[in-house]
Specification:
213 residues; mainly alpha; 3-methyladenine DNA Glycosylase II, Chain A, domain 3; Alpha-Beta Plaits; two-stranded antiparallel ribbon; 4 strands
C-alpha cells in the first residue's frame, strides 16, 4: 500500500508526463508509470517526453539526470495518426485500441481520426489488419493543455470500461438460442470477411489501373 507521501509524489510526477498514454514505458499509461517512478522505477523510460521530461523528473525527485533509455524508443516530433479512409474496412480494432477516444466510426463503416484529440501514441497501428493507418507530422506542438485534456479522456475511458465490465457481470446469462438459429459471427470472422472485401477492392483497383492506356 502506498504511503500518503508516495501517492502525492506520484500525482506530481504524473503532472509532468506528456499523457500520450503510449505504453512505451512498459506501463498501461502515464499514471501507472508515475506511480512506478514514485516507488523507485527509472525516470528515463518516456520517449514522447524525451530529455525535457527526464530533466523535470530529475528536479522533482532529486535523482540524477540520465539519457533516455532507447530500449523503450526514441524521442520523435509530435505526429498524428491518419486513416486512409478508402481502405478502412470498419473493423473497429483501432477504436478499441485508442486510449483517448480519438477515433470515431462504427462497425463496417469508415473510421476517422480526430486530429485535435490524437496523442500520437501509435497504439492503433498494430491492430489494423489492412495497414491503412499512417503517422503524419503534426502541424503543432504537443502542449500542456493537450496533456491535461488527454489525461481526462483517458481517465473517462477507463471509468467507462470499468462500468461496462461491472454491468456485464451483473447481466444474467441469456436463454439458450433455438437450435435452428444461425450462429452469430465472431469478431475474427467479421474481420476476415472485411479483409476479403478489402482484398477484392484492391484487386479490382489494380485491374482498372492496368487496363488504362
Amino acid at each position: 500500500m502506498k504511503s500518503d507521501g508516495e501517492a502525492e509524489l506520484a500525482e506530481r510526477i504524473d503532472a509532468l508526463l506528456p499523457q500520450t498514454q503510449c505504453r512505451r514505458c512498459g506501463y498501461d499509461g502515464c499514471k501507472p508509470y508515475a506511480e512506478a517512478i514514485a516507488a523507485g522505477d527509472a525516470i528515463n523510460r518516456c520517449p514522447p517526453g524525451g530529455d525535457a521530461v527526464i530533466a523535470a523528473l530529475s528536479r522533482l525527485t532529486g535523482r540524477p539526470t540520465v539519457p533516455l533509455d532507447h530500449t523503450h524508443g526514441v524521442h520523435m516530433p509530435f505526429a498524428l495518426a491518419r486513416i486512409d479512409e478508402a481502405w478502412c474496412i470498419g473493423c473497429t480494432l483501432c477504436i478499441d485500441a485508442c486510449p483517448v477516444d480519438a477515433i470515431v466510426g462504427a462497425a463496417k463503416r469508415m473510421h476517422t481520426v480526430l486530429p485535435a484529440l490524437c496523442t500520437g501514441c501509435e497504439l492503433c497501428l498494430p491492430p489494423c489488419p489492412v495497414d491503412c493507418i499512417d503517422m503524419i507530422p503534426a502541424p503543432r506542438a504537443w502542449s500542456p493543455e493537450d496533456a491535461r485534456a488527454a489525461s481526462e479522456r483517458f481517465a473517462a475511458r477507463n471509468s467507462r470500461n470499468r462500468q461496462a465490465q461491472g454491468r456485464s457481470r451483473e447481466i444474467p446469462a441469456s436463454p439458450r438460442a433455438p437450435v435452428d438459429a444461425p450462429p452469430r459471427p465472431s469478431k475474427g470472422e467479421v474481420v476476415a470477411a472485411a479483409l476479403a472485401r478489402a482484398r477484392a477492392r484492391r484487386a479490382a483497383a489494380g485491374n482498372r489501373n492496368r487496363s488504362k492506356p
